[in-house]
Design brief:
Blueprint lengths: L2 H12 L3 H11 L5 H5 L6 H13 L3 E3 L8 E3 L1 H43 L1
Antiparallel strand pairs: 1-2
Helix pairs in contact: 2-4
Length: 119
Amino acid sequence: MDDRTEQLNRTFSALADPTRRDIVARLAGGDANVSDLAEPYEMSLQAVSKHVKVLEEAGLVTRSKDAQRRPVHLDAEVFGLMTKWIERYRQEAEQRYRRLDALLGTIAVDKTTQTKEVS
């Protein structure tokens, strides 16, 4: 497996958890420290910190040292990789649907022609 595939695996695995997806959504609005991120959840600060660590290991977030704080930031580069992967398969599916539409259109025209010939 190449590095990009490994990165995608880690990313999608990290985002499989609804709490981590929520954390990512909240970080889209701006940086936050772990205690801020833990606020709406009924779980320990340690549990939220573990979720952040999974996101960090997946490359979705980074943490920096800002005096006593350790703000968590989203890393846009990984989202670009995910978007490219999703877009590739979206385009393939769209092409299949266009081919199906064309085939169904041909069948509909054939039926119309046959109906007119019988009348």
